[in-house]
Structure formats: structure tokens, C-alpha cells
């Protein structure tokens, strides 16, 4: 029961979305198609979880979410290019009279919504959802979809969005569903890509202009430049890209031209027609504004996930006279229990953090508690992934110990009998070079 309660926000969003689809498209047939799509999405995703395992069931969904967000970007630019002219009443009626096209849209939306909602129930350590929550979710989604179609007939067509504003609302709801599952999160990778782009651009620009060696740059100037390498740049840049499509659609609606009234001789009739158009234009802004609410909720879920991570306090270790850090497999911690175990090593004023864990392949690996891209805020573990606390990127356990991207920087180690040995100087030097790069922008440090 407690497991099923986790999807209540997603089911509420689904129950609010179906009446809009039903009223905007072809009525009850759309609701039935959406219900069938939701059940199919739940069943298909559960089959993937059962037979594929790992991260494979989540990658197609995350890719589809990214694609529809890019399509929304294109649609928003197109709407603004057309000068705010959205679908006419004739186009709306044409869509309503095309039940096959409307049902196809409803089925695709239902499949995606059902799959995203089921992933909220997926165990952190992989595998399919248990039978009872799986059936409960499928039935609940279908009942909500069909039941929500009845009050839809009482919604005014002036309030219900059409065309691109409808797409903005649907996509924002799906983004909210996706961001509630960290393995499907879209906002954090978007922020990370913005941060990487800014970092690489500034780095290449400074290198090409020989600015790092400029003799007239004071330390406070480098302090301002360092702001470009903070996580806030990625966050605010990601927010701009996150909100801009919906804002462009709202602007397009606001810029819709007033209808021509030159053929109407009576001034009262002219004013009445213009007032009705302005009122309708304001009502149509409700969809983009509601989409902004869902996008804000999605970004909040991405930044403050509900998942609790395994993040043990680092254990202080020492080195032998030969300069080796030797950690027994069994003792204060069990290195081979599949969990992340953190350690810290200090030599004078120098200090480094690292962790040891057993990968799904059965290999003990040692890595820094930092990556080569982000500032060293460390990692936490949840199920079959670890998360970078700086950029909120999830890294599958299968890739731990491999270099590149946001993966923890690997440290050479040797497994000798019942212990793991690490060279202390290699650890300190790697930590310091990594922290210097990530703190000052890839070697620009001043």
C-alpha cells in the first residue's frame, strides 16, 4: 500500500490531463484510447524491467522525453514565427472530426504516462514491479482516464487549449512525471550540459586569447571569472532553457493580431467583437501558465529528490612506512557488501577522500570521491547507481571504476589477499590535480 502511494501525484496529473485531451480532441473515444495506452505503457515497461534489467528499461524513456522536449522547442519557435496565430476554429473542428488521429495522440500520451508512472514504483536495485502494485496502477490509470472523460464535456472550448498550447501542457505534465524518477530526470542533465558548455567555451576562449598568462589580471578579476565555473551557471542556464519554450508560446498567444473589423459599420458591434477576442486570448494563456507550474514542480523534484542516499561518513586511514594505504576487506566495514564505503587520508596539510566498493561484475574498485568535471562535493548511493551531489547526475554501478564524464576518478589499487592496497602519494596527487582543475576551470587556476 505504501509503495502505491508514491504514484498519487502522477495519477492526479493523469486525471487532470485526460479531460483536457478528451475535450480538445474527439471526446470519449480519446479517453478510452488514453486508458488503453496507459495500461499498455505500464505493461510494456514492467516487461522491460523484468527481462532487461539494469538501466536499459530507462534509457528509451529518457530519450523519448528528451525528444518531445526538443519538439516543443521547435513548436514554440514556429508559433512565435507565425506571429502568434495558433489553430483556428476550423482546424480544431477538423481535428475533432478525425478520431483516428486524435486517438493516436491519446494512445501515445497514455503509453508514455503509464511507463513513466510505473518507473516511480521500480525497485532501486532493479527488477519488475510486484504484481499487486502493478495491477493496481494499471486499473487505477484506466479508471481515472475513462472516469475523467465525463466531466470533460462541461469544460468550455474557450478554456481548453488547442494545438501548440495543448502540446505545451501535455509535455510539461510528462516532464513532471519523468523528473519524479531520478533515472528519468531531464532537468539535471540539461543543467549539466549547460555547465559543461560554459566551462568549455570559457576555457577555450581564455586559452586562445592567452588570458591565463596575462600579467595585468588581478586576483579579484579571477574571482569574478570563477563565477562562470560555479554550479549556479548550469542551474540558471538550465532554467532558461527549461522555461523558454512555454514562455515563447505564451508570448505568441499574447501577440495574436486583433481580428479585422473594417467590414462592421456599427461601433458597438466592433467593440463587442474585439472585447470577445481579447477575453478569449487571455483565457488561452491559462495553458502556458499551467505548464509553467508543472515545469517548476519538475525542476524542484530534480533539485530536491525524495530518494535517501547511502552516504557514510569517511573513515580516516593511515599509510604504512612504505607509503601504502591498506584496507582489510573485512573489519570495521565489509568492502564486498555492494555498498559504497568512504575513506579519507591526511598527510600534513594534504587530504584526499576516496571510496571503495564492489561492482556488479564482482570487482573491488577504488575511486576519488570526486569527478574530473564537477567540484568535489562527493557521491551517494541508491540501489544500482551513485549520484554526483554537485550536478545530480546518476552513474550506474556498472561504470564505476571507468574514467570519463561524471564518473568518479579511478585510483589504481591492488587486491592482496584479504586487503586492498593504494599508493598514498598517487592518491594525494590525483586528488589535488582533480580538485585544482574542477575548482579553477581546467587548469586556468590563479
TrEMBL record:
Source organism per UniProt: Geomonas subterranea
Entry-linked Pfam families: FtrD-like
Protein name as annotated: DUF2318 domain-containing protein
Annotated keywords: Membrane, Transmembrane, Transmembrane helix
InterPro entries noted in UniProt: FtrD-like
Transmembrane segments: 60-80, 100-119, 131-152, 164-184, 233-255, 283-300
Annotated Membrane iron-sulfur containing protein FtrD-like domain residues: 335-429
Coiled coil: none
Amino acid at each position: 500500500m505504501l509503495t502505491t502511494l508514491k504514484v498519487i501525484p502522477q495519477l492526479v496529473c493523469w486525471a487532470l490531463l485526460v479531460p483536457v485531451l478528451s475535450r480538445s480532441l474527439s471526446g470519449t473515444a480519446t479517453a478510452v484510447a488514453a486508458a488503453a495506452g496507459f495500461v499498455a505503457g505500464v505493461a510494456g515497461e514492467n516487461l522491460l524491467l523484468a527481462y532487461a534489467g539494469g538501466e536499459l528499461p530507462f534509457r528509451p524513456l529518457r530519450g523519448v522525453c528528451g525528444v518531445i522536449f526538443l519538439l516543443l522547442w521547435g513548436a514554440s519557435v514556429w508559433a512565435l514565427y507565425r506571429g502568434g496565430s495558433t489553430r483556428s476554429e476550423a482546424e480544431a473542428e477538423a481535428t475533432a472530426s478525425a478520431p483516428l488521429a486524435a486517438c493516436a495522440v491519446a494512445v501515445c500520451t497514455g503509453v508514455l504516462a503509464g511507463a513513466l508512472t510505473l518507473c516511480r514504483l521500480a525497485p532501486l536495485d532493479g527488477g519488475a514491479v510486484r504484481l499487486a502494485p502493478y495491477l493496481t496502477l494499471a486499473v487505477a490509470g484506466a479508471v481515472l482516464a475513462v472516469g475523467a472523460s465525463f466531466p470533460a464535456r462541461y469544460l468550455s472550448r474557450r478554456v481548453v487549449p488547442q494545438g501548440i498550447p495543448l502540446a505545451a501542457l501535455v509535455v510539461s505534465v510528462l516532464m513532471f512525471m519523468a523528473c519524479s524518477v531520478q533515472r528519468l530526470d531531464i532537468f539535471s542533465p540539461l543543467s549539466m550540459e549547460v555547465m559543461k558548455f560554459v566551462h568549455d567555451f570559457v576555457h577555450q576562449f581564455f586559452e586562445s586569447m592567452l588570458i591565463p598568462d596575462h600579467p595585468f589580471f588581478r586576483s579579484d578579476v579571477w574571482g569574478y571569472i570563477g563565477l562562470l565555473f560555479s554550479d549556479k551557471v548550469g542551474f540558471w542556464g538550465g532554467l532558461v532553457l527549461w522555461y523558454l519554450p512555454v514562455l515563447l508560446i505564451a508570448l505568441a498567444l499574447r501577440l495574436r493580431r486583433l481580428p479585422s473589423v473594417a467590414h462592421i459599420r456599427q461601433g458597438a458591434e466592433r467593440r463587442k467583437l474585439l472585447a470577445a477576442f481579447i477575453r478569449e486570448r487571455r483565457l488561452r494563456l491559462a495553458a502556458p501558465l499551467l505548464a509553467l507550474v508543472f515545469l517548476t514542480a519538475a525542476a524542484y523534484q530534480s533539485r530536491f529528490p525524495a530518494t535517501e542516499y547511502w552516504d557514510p561518513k569517511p573513515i580516516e586511514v593511515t599509510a604504512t612506512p612504505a607509503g601504502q594505504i591498506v584496507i582489510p576487506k573485512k573489519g570495521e566495514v565489509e568492502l564486498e557488501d555492494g555498498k559504497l564505503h568512504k575513506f579519507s587520508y591526511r598527510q600534513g596539510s594534504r587530504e584526499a577522500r576516496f571510496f571503495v566498493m564492489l561492482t556488479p561484475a564482482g570487482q573491488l574498485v577504488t575511486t576519488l570521491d570526486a569527478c574530473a568535471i564537477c567540484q568535489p562535493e562527493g557521491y551517494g548511493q541508491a540501489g544500482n547507481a551513485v549520484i554526483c551531489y554537485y550536478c545530480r547526475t546518476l552513474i550506474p554501478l556498472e561504470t564505476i571504476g571507468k574514467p570519463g564524464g561524471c564518473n568518479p576518478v579511478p585510483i589504481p589499487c591492488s587486491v592482496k589477499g584479504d586487503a586492498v592496497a593504494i599508493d598514498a602519494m598517487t592518491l594525494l596527487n590525483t586528488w589535488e590535480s582533480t580538485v585544482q582543475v574542477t575548482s579553477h576551470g581546467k587548469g586556468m587556476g590563479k
